[in-house]
Write a structure and sequence with these properties.
about 210 residues; mainly alpha; globular
């Protein structure tokens, strides 16, 4: 946990050294890298964008637009790579290190059963997000389904993180702790929703079989 917090501080401190055009370019670049599966926390990147806006180094609207564009570009390119090259991408030198067999197996199982729901939920699943979008492309999930579901999820998640950084721009310690709490809450909500959905489906099947 301490290592994670230290890494978050390093990311934030790095962002605080830029402003204006450089800041927008950095936000877009880092979010693109996050979308490609590189383990840089997307939430901390978006919080940093909010902090920059709160400190007047960029506009709030600009932070929001850069955040939305950045996450959608990374996700979309990853999906399209999977769609075009198929399973061959898992043999690529960079991708075979990022996308482990365990992650791919989990992603495939989720997509096979609930493609539409998982493309929405993936935005709130940092450890599996990139693997799910890549695998969704490989498994030929319709682009419209992927883009709409991911876009709706981004319209929820991106403003939350940017607002958090914006409103606590002078309290970096507090914003990092809040980010941890929010991630825990999101995790609990997702797990509860999945369990509830499984329970509902089983009850439905039992009613039909009786």
């Amino acid at each position: 946990m301490e290592q994670t917090t230290s890494f978050a501080y390093k990311i934030i401190n790095f962002f605080m050294t830029v402003s204006g055009f450089e800041a927008y370019a950095l936000i877009l670049g880092v979010l693109f890298i996050c979308g490609m599966g590189v383990p840089i926390p997307e939430d901390i990147t978006l919080i940093s964008a909010g902090l920059l806006a709160g400190q007047g180094k960029i506009s709030f609207e600009g932070a929001m637009i850069a955040g939305l564009i950045g996450v959608m570009i990374g996700d979309t390119i990853l999906f399209m790579i999977g769609q075009k090259y198929g399973r061959a991408v898992f043999n690529w030198p960079v991708f075979n290190k990022i996308f482990t067999p365990a992650r791919i197996t989990k992603a495939e199982l989720q997509i096979q059963t609930h493609a539409r729901k998982i493309c929405f939920a993936a935005r709130f699943m940092p450890g599996l997000r990139a693997a799910i979008f890549l695998t969704a492309g490989i498994m030929k999930v319709p682009f419209r389904t992927f883009f709409f579901q991911d876009g709706v999820a981004a319209l929820i998640s991106v403003p939350v993180w940017i607002y958090l950084g914006y409103w606590f721009s002078d309290k970096i310690d507090q914003v990092i702790e809040l980010a941890k709490d929010i991630n825990i809450i999101i995790g609990v909500i997702i797990v509860s929703a999945v369990l509830g959905f499984i329970y509902y489906n089983r009850k439905k099947k039992l009613r039909h079989s009786s």
